[in-house]
Predict the structure.
Amino acid sequence: MATKTKTAFIKKAPSQRATFVAAKEAKNRFGELLEAVQRHPIIITKNDRPVARIVRYSEKTAFEETEDKIWGERAIAAEKEGTIGVEATRKLMEKWRHVAARPR
């Protein structure tokens, strides 16, 4: 029994992490596309113009990674500085609330 070989319909973009796939090919070979997107992002093109970008569901964006890093650094710095306590925090929040409520 002859086995059918998969043709490489996904073209790796030169010097880029993403690959480009024509919309018609993406539609016809959706299963292969889902496998490929686990390895790298896919850009769907229509009439040789990019129209969509598909990434693996669990992949964080560069923005999310940067945001996580910044908040992590802030948390570490705050932990090193120590806390002011519950009562002092309550008084500070009251003060800020009154300042924000003043008419301008």
Observations:
- The beta strands are 11-12, 19-22, 42-46, 49-54.
- The chain has two domains: 11-54, 62-101.
- The first strand starts at residue 11 and ends at 12.
